[in-house]
Amino acid sequence: MTIDDIMRSARAHNEWFKNSLPMIASENITSPTVRQLLASDLAHRYAEGTVGHRLYQGVKYIDEIEQQAIDLACKLFKAEHVNVQPISGVNANIAAFFALAKPRERLMALDTSHGGHISHGTKSVAGLCDLKIVKHPFDYEEMNIDADAMVSTIYEKEPKIILFGASLFLFPHPIAAARDAAREVGAYVVYDSAHVLGLIAGGQFQDPLREGVDVMTGSTHKTFPGPQGGIIFTTHALAEAVDAAVFPGTVSNHHLHHVAGLAVTLIEMLQFGRAYARQIIKNAQTLGAALYNEGCNVLCPDKGFTESHQIVIDVGRASSMAVALEEANIIANKNLLPWDDHSAPENPSGLRFGTQELTRLGMKETEMKVVAKLIQRVLDGEIPEKVKKDVVDFKNDYQEVEYCFSHELGAYQFPEW
Ligand code: DSN
After folding, report:
1. For ligand 1, atom 5, which residue shows the shortest CA distance?
2. Which atom of ligand 1 lies nearest, measured to the CA of 352?
3. What's the whole-model pTM score?
């Protein structure tokens, strides 16, 4: 392997995505300004500690940037306290669980087969913290937590943390229904906003901090279109415990170039977040309806398919379909559905699509109908290579990042390359 080989692969990747429809629901694309910051000297530095209380010298500008990011996040999310140091959403969850629960206490969370993230289960963060899992009761028809059964389970099992949020996340979760029971059993309410942080920022999904959560964790690169990273929001009362669980608890050095990129994305979202989030959801609902009208088994037709950035189709053989879509340059993922055989997660029946990145590239309802047709042709068995030609032609008109201030760089272009 030479440097040229690596550069060739990276260029090939950029070229592929330039000509593709990226629809993985957990991804997004950053603005040109953020991409410049990601390549800045900030990427090389250490700033262990908190603003004004660092262990190393050389951080006077880093302190300015991190304080700006904190202030902007507090303003955008109307939060009492924010920590911008977790380097991923999983890291944010580790810190939150570490701060709030002791080993062998109970975490009430969604099962992965019901859409829960892997870090909500014993194979990952919950296991690492030695937490005992209590599953949220799940309503297959509603594709949501069964609120009444949840309240009974809270009284019966007395979890220490009641966790909301998911990776397969179509509708807002019943936070308010859990609040009184949580108080009575002494549980903390935590919301993992990783997927929907950008929708919350734009005021278009539920508002967990107003609905009564104690802690909201998130990742900064899904519907929130920033650099990859994590974030934690909490109350003044829990601030010290959460900050200590981040540093020195679970992070040594945070990623300073990402913090700068996050600050810029927060400014972008203060300006454009409402319009962006609204369009993401409109696009998801339009895509769901268009696919449904084409004959696809899109989940939850009676509920308008979705209130988030995601739609899910039950296709039966999702693994081969996801590969066929990829051959047509439509990038999506197979997804376990509640009624699938959980012992064979590699052969699920669902396909999950997110509209947040195509929306960021300027697509609206008209374009979603075209995208639905392209997806449907592949699902109907047309040769992917044939569909790919039309995908490439169509994508050619969507090469700039919208909902931001600068357009000097194309979405897939790097100036130094
Ligand atoms: N696994 C990611 C997703 O696609 O939902 C979240 O980390």
Report:
1. 167
2. 4
3. 0.97
Could you tell me the distance, in angstroms and rounded to a whole number, from the CA of residue 90 to the centre of ligand 1? 10
Same domain for 39 and 141, yes or no, is yes
Q: Which of 257, 264, 227, 253 is nearest to 40 (CA)?
A: 257
**Ligand 1 centre and the CA of 119: distance in Å?**
10
Ligand 1 centre distance from Cα of residue 4 (Å): 31
How buried is residue 248: exposed, middle or buried, by Cβ count under 10 Å (0-12/13-18/19+)?
Answer: exposed
Residue 112 Cα to ligand 1 midpoint, Å, equals 11
Residue range 66-106, pLDDT digits in tens? 999 999 999 999 999 999 999 999 999 999 999 999 999 99
Strand, coil or helix: 279: helix
Residues 379 and 257 placed together within one structural domain of the fold: no
**147 and 203, same domain (yes or no):** yes
Is the predicted pLDDT of residue 245 greater than 80, yes or no? yes
Are 159 and 188 part of one and the same domain? yes
Q: Give 232 Cα–ligand 1 centroid separation in angstroms.
A: 17
Closest residue (by CA) to atom 4 of ligand 1?
A: 26
Q: Are residues 93 and 242 in the same domain?
A: yes
Whether 405 maps to a domain, the answer reads no
20/28 Cα distance (integer angstroms): 13
- Which residues, judged by CB distance below 6 Å to any ligand atom, belong to the binding site of ligand 1? 25-26, 89, 117, 167
Distance CA(403)–CA(324), nearest Å, equals: 31
Residues 40 and 70 in one domain: yes
The pLDDT of residue 341 is 85
Token duo for residue 271: 């300006």
Among left, alpha and beta (phi > 0; psi -120 to 50; other), residue 381 is left
Range of the domain at 386: 274-395
Per-residue confidence (pLDDT) for residue 345, from 0 to 100: 78
Ligand 1 pocket: which of 26, 197, 217 to mutate (most atoms within 8 A of CB): 26
Cβ(273)–Cβ(202) under 8 Å? yes
Do residues 245 and 98 both lie within one domain?
yes
Q: What is the CA radius of gyration of the chain?
A: 21
Which residue has the CA at smallest separation from atom 3 of ligand 1?
A: 26
Residue 147 lies in a domain: yes
Looking at residue 362, which CATH number applies to its domain?
Answer: 3.90.1150.10
Judge whether residue 276 has pLDDT over 80.
Answer: yes
Rounded mean pLDDT, 6-29: 96
* pLDDT tens-digit series, residues 171-219: 999 999 999 999 999 999 999 999 999 999 999 999 999 999 999 999 9
Q: What does the pLDDT read at residue 417?
A: 44
Question: Is 410 among the domain residues?
Answer: no
Task: Tell me, in angstroms, the distance from the centre of ligand 1 to residue 155's CA.
Answer: 31
Which CATH number do you get for residue 102? 3.40.640.10
The residue from 220, 243, 266 where one domain ends is 266
